[in-house]
Design a protein that fits this description.
single chain; 7 helices
Length: 189
């Protein structure tokens, strides 16, 4: 068996195990946490913490987080989904009849990479580097992982979609953070 085929088999087996272990309670929990509006209070709290820490200079970190979400969202679609065209599990002809979908929601045709994973891990890493609060690191990365896990549970992403999406998001966060540091250094000179 070729290397790529073995990776795909592991990915499919892991997806099947996660998606296959469902219950009515967890279906509703995962569906809720996967929604964007559910997390608005968290975003507002992070904005509040950034303003509290940076006062008048909070505009740049807040803009960087917003720009980061836009960049990861666009790259995950145009650089990955539109290029690789890997079907979501719920659109995969070999799997779609066995995929447990919650509320019948599948999403777009292609799923590599997960925009949810890219966005949440970008936000987690960038905001944690900006805030530098120890407990926040653990909580925000748990949040990103939980949302990403929900996408597999809901039947709309393979684990590899999540892993590469998370990696993409963290790379974008690092680039934006170092760009911010570079601009601060130039401003001081």
């Amino acid at each position: 068996m070729a290397f790529i085929e073995s990776i795909e088999k592991i990915d499919t087996d892991l997806f099947t195990a996660i998606n296959g272990s469902h219950s009515p309670f967890w279906d509703q929990v995962m569906y809720a946490v996967s929604g964007t509006f559910f997390w608005i209070p968290l975003y507002l709290l992070v904005i509040f913490l950034v303003i509290k820490k940076y006062k008048r200079s909070a505009v740049i970190p807040i803009l960087l987080m917003i720009v980061g979400v836009i960049i990861t969202d666009q790259l995950s679609v145009h650089l990955f989904k539109d290029v690789f065209e890997r079907f979501r599990p719920c659109h995969n002809l070999e799997l779609k009849d066995s995929v447990h979908l919650v509320n019948g929601k599948c999403g777009g045709q292609f799923g590599f990479v997960s925009s949810h994973a890219a966005n949440t891990f970008m936000f987690a890493l960038l905001s944690s580097m900006i805030l530098k609060i120890r407990i926040y690191y653990f909580l925000i990365f748990f949040w990103a992982a939980f949302i990403s896990y929900s996408r597999i549970y809901l039947g709309v992403h393979f684990p590899a979609d999540i892993a590469v999406g998370a990696l993409l998001g963290m790379i974008i966060a690092l680039i934006l953070f170092f760009l911010r540091m570079k601009l601060q250094k130039i401003k001081k000179e």
